[in-house]
Amino acid sequence: MKTPATRTDAKAQRPAGHVLVRASSVSKTYASGKLEATVLRGVTLTLHAGELALLMGPSGSGKTTLLCVLSGLLRPTSGEVELCGAPITRLPDRAAAEVRRRGVGFVFQTYNLFPALTALDNVAEVLALKGMARAQSIAVASAALERVGLGLRLHHRPGELSGGERQRVAIARAMAGRPSLIFGDEPTAALDRHTGLEVVELLRQQVNEECGVLLVTHDQRLLPFADRLLEIEDGQIIGDEPVKATA
Description:
The chain has six helices and eleven strands. It is α/β, with parallel strands linked by helices.
């Protein structure tokens, strides 16, 4: 990928904060009978609070597998991952899931909303799973939806919302629990250009000294929102550069 990495906001690039994810020599091989396919090959990287990083590469390069391994959704075949200070590859599944539940938010291309629930309940239910009382979860969910511009759509179900509105619900759900890290897997792919840029701007707003964002994407129009560009090919990181701010 030869496109230069640039930021178009006037702010200087923010310094990296504390480490949120540390991957060391991570590999992932899928086996089916006698057949094996190695998708990740010795990936080593760190992600920090205070940065929005893009993970880009061709189809089949291992982007989504790497996101799943870094977030604890998938265990690597070898290597280690530390997530939010916890060595999740050494923990039992239940303990690793608890780290993920409390520290991570997800935004996916297909939204992954409960179709029978309203926007408000889609967000509130996830907060309840984090141990929040019902009344508090409703209040926090309502505030999160207000922040993403859906204050008048709280009681609409996903089928009554546009694609952009559904993705805003997913972002509200991801950020409502105040995670340390938000992972997005092609969060703008199903959206038109204008709506997609609005969505990534909402994700950009979540970045602060305690929170970082990693987005898997093919969309180079997202580069102006990023602090860092990671490039992956054939399961290996082939590029890791800061995105330079321009006036």
